[in-house]
């Protein structure tokens, strides 16, 4: 059984169901295959190449923020990485720069985090 026909997700994915419902990340079997087919073209390498400037810009902002934390013994990277991810998703998906990494107090950011 090396194919995806009988693929089951790890039990920990069940915790995501209340938030994400049964989407590509949490579904399995035929439901997963049909949703995966729909998204495959969106993540083709040629399409992703167009987003490299956004990935680079937002990653640079993240790197600069993390560089300021290097003198500490421990840094929780969850929030900075989440903000970077949000910036990348909003700009590549919607074409909107929200500046989540640089403006932690924005109303939009407060609404989604």
Automatic annotation (TrEMBL):
Q: Which UniProt keywords apply?
A: Endoplasmic reticulum, Heme, Iron, Membrane, Metal-binding, Monooxygenase, Oxidoreductase
Where does the UniProt entry say this protein principally localizes?
A: endoplasmic reticulum
Gene Ontology CC terms, in alphabetical order: endoplasmic reticulum membrane
What GO molecular function annotation could you give as one example from this UniProt entry?
iron ion binding
Q: Which cofactor does it need?
A: heme
Q: Matching InterPro entries, A to Z?
A: Cyt_P450, Cyt_P450_E_grp-II, Cyt_P450_sf, Cytochrome_P450_Monoox
Q: Which Gene3D superfamilies match?
A: Cytochrome P450
Matching SUPFAM superfamilies, A to Z? Cytochrome P450
Localization, per the record, is:
Endoplasmic reticulum membrane
Q: Which family does it belong to?
A: Belongs to the cytochrome P450 family.
Name of this protein = Cytochrome P450 4V2
